[in-house]
Amino acid sequence: MIIQDIKPAEMLFKKFCEHYSARRLEDALRLCANNMTLWGTGLDEYRVGIEAIEEQLRRDWSQSTRSTMDLVAFIPTPHSTSWVAGVCNAHLTIENQDYSFDNLRVTIATVEEQGKLKIAHMHASFPDLRNPTGNSFPVQP
Question: Is the pTM of this model over 0.90?
Fold first, then answer.
């Protein structure tokens, strides 16, 4: 039997996805550093501090009746790294309509706070769909 060696930052990432999907606010916030920063997928989603992170989670959940993140894969990183990146698929229900978005790119950086590993920074983004495969910019010359 092969036991997969999961990195501490990957475990933190997975736990956050589980708590986010189950809408467990307090559990999700316990994973966040007090001065955590977040760049979300919305134009105005730049948050600093645990209160702002709570506000963002409440906003996300108020705009949908279901919002889950399924981890597709982690990007390979050294075991000792203090960050992790993954690709997720997001599934949402908004006004009784189901939506799925592939290629949600999430990166977290970690920090030790009061003896526990916490999320210091999170960045979530989707590829710009105006940008065709093979182009680096969403501009058509």
Answer: no
